[in-house]
Amino acid sequence: MTNLQIWTYSVVGFTFLLYIGIALRAKASTTGEFYVAGKGVHPVANGMATAADWMSAASFISMAGLIAFNGYDASVYLMGWTGGYVLLAMLLAPYLRKFGKFTVPEFIGERFYSKTARIVAVICLIVASITYVIGQMKGIGVAFSRFLEIDFTSGVIVGMAIVFIYAVLGGMKGITYTQIAQYVVLIFAYTIPAIFISLQLTGNPLPQLGLGSTLHDGAHMLDKLNQVLVDIGFAQYTAQKGTTLNLFLLTLSLMIGTAGLPHVIVRFFTVPKVRDARSSTGWALVFIAILYTTAPAVGAMAIYNFIKTVQPGEISGNTAEANLKYDDRPAWFKNWETTGLLKFEDKNGDGRIEYYNDKNEKYAATAASRGWKGNEMVKVDRDIMVLANPEIAKLPNWVIALVIAGGLAAALSTAAGLLLAISTAISHDLLKGIFAPQINEKQELLAARIAMAGAIVVAGLLGIHPPGFAAQVVALAFGLAASSLFPALMMGIFNKRINNAAAVTGMLVGLGFTLIYIFVYKGWFFIPGTNNLPNDATHWVMGIQPESIGAVGALLNFITAMIVSRITPPPPEHIQHLVEDIRVPRGAGGASGH
Description:
The chain is built from 24 helices and 2 strands.
């Protein structure tokens, strides 16, 4: 066993024992503890747990990978996901906490005085949450495949088993305190390597400042990166590549999707008071900001180090020996080849690694003059970049082991929160709330655990063949939440005129439209007379990618609900008073001014 393996098994093993120990110690014995941790979590602790719950594999593993390869365009993930928390703090969290129910479907069912609305909300929740969990399973598979040096599929299966142990047993009470530990692990695992690499490349210990600093050769970091990428046929790192409309809609979709995510919203039911819900959101933003302000530097430095490895001459300026001999590839390259997430194909038979953009027509002549017959790095999974970066930079083995533990912490923490939201929707909203109200607390708890186990199996199997990189899959989930649940929650709180028919119709239209667009442009629907539409900008409607379409679905949801509410009877008077009561702070005077 190598020194790295010893470090990895030690660090990851210790963190797993910690998580499982906390889950067993805080095992839920009542439905209140299973669903909302008995409503006794301190706002600071809840903010930290919320940050871990929300900063998933997409944030830790995938986002910087997308930034590395997409540059400027991937900044929308930073803006959309953090901006959504402002919406959540201002527009939803305090009001939903004041309403005082366990789940989002329960709020929608009572606000719209309809079992049908509650069932539709459960469907929307399950579709969005399962999609989200698929992204986590992809991240778990990437981390476990590298950690155990096995193929990606086996990594996902091992991850499913670990999630099952601590998520099914602990419920929200166990998950909350486990997520606090996971936040500490993931934030150290993300920032420590970033500090090392920033010092290594720029001499600046703060990655946020290192991104705007000069390299040791005197060149500005971003200027150098732009130059090198153009030299091998790619667009400038800091250039906008997608359409402004698509970037705007993707940012909006991620923002309102954040505010509509059930597994995040339910965290604000775990604090003692309404005021604590808003406070929790503020603390969560502080804890999230530490990682999110570091991510741009991690992405830029990761792609710089990657090119420096496979195309060293492009970095040094010696283009005569620009590329690396495959037989001389470093250990990190061989390690990631084992997982199947990094693949090389020697297209011109020269034994060297040719990494350049073979789809760039302007670069074709240069490529031909060098004898290149296509990009020979036929697979560089974006989700490996954060985990591989410390290895590429030749950091100490304990740092590499810490990063793997952090990636697993991020993926497992969010997967647990999502699975809890799914199990709660099935056991509390469908069984106890509608189909079997006579079941006792023990039976409801058993049903929740069975539902969670089933969700783990479904998400794991789908995670083996995900519809994109982890962050892209998560963006699809945000779009589904944005198009279905967010409008219903907003109108339920701020519009007395929206009735049950309007809410149900709006959710179905928003979810249906978004799902159809995603399925068509991800190639999962066969369209007669076509060979299926490829998932690229030349075929998207108005250049809108599937990850961005949730914002359009939300707009259709709002419009549909408004129209239906105008042609159907208004809600009963007691429901309209309920809406007013949700928005008026306790202790405030009524309409008479008392």
